[in-house]
Amino acid sequence: MKIAFIGLGNMGGGMAANLVKAGHAVSAFDLSADALARAKDSGCATFGSVREAVAGVDVVVSMLPNGAIVDSVYGADVIGHAPTGAILIDCSTIDVDTARKVGEAAAAAGYEMVDSPVSGGIAAANAGTLTFMAGGSDSAFARAEPILAAMGKAVIHAGGAGAGQAAKICNNMLLGIHMNGTCEAFRLAEKLGLDLQKFFDISSVSSGQNWSMTAYCPVPGVGPVTPADNNYQGGFATALMLKDLKLAMEAATSAGATVPMGARAKELYEAFDQAGNGGLDFSAIIKTL
Ligand code: NAD
Fold first, then answer.
1. How does pLDDT run across 51-91, given as a tens digit for each residue?
2. 21, 40, 168, 198: which is the annotated catalytic residue?
3. pTM value surpassing 0.90
4. 101 is catalytic
């Protein structure tokens, strides 16, 4: 298929390369010349504007920084410029309201669209092992699914327009909460004189078990190898966790949901980010305890 790919940064670069590997003809556009040069090296054809990249394609995929950019790229240069038969797939993590608004504008212009944010970081984007959570109609999902499958290990239909973003921010709010809880439990265990590997052995098979402990342990040398073992480099940046928690708080306000633990996790990550730690893996928040 002919696929336009907009936004070839840390995530989009690897995703577009996997579409090329799957045999698709990928037309790439990014504002960054470096990102475009990398896309060219991975087999994409590169273009000087979104409009040129989306002309005549069957599919548009985007992986952009935020909702304002997604809104402006689709509003100004995709809707009305890609063929109406093209399926539109936005994989960026953005706010639910903007995802719904862009989806409605696309539908009004005769397009099918899915919002399909991802779980998994840069390594998963490069390896083609992302998890996609997609929002859109059954027919839009059926068309998007094989494209997403070429970039991931799991593609789940979350519901109608905006449901992918809703699933993503609920999941990441929970992640922010249980990472903080896991850090607190390890620090308390330490103060109480427990051997931390022993505490891991017990809690990882007891009722405190959770992903932040068993797959992403914030304590160096305990559990599987994680960013904690690499001085909290790589992994999922604190700044991105904060972005997702802010989106979760906006969504909670908009939906009238009460999220006291999510709100506290956002405050803790905000303080950690403001102290200059935005580039560190989000498990590094254990250093504040
Ligand atoms: P990034 O900043 O590396 O890439 C974004 C790219 O978009 C950049 O290359 C930028 O030049 C380009 N861009 C910005 N405005 C543009 C425009 N108007 N037209 C064309 N290109 C434009 O960011 P990333 O880490 O690749 O993240 C992309 C999205 O994926 C974000 O929404 C992020 O929240 C989400 N995400 C990231 C991760 C991660 O671990 N990095 C994990 C899951 C989800």
1. 999 999 999 999 999 999 999 999 999 999 999 999 999 99
2. 168
3. yes
4. no
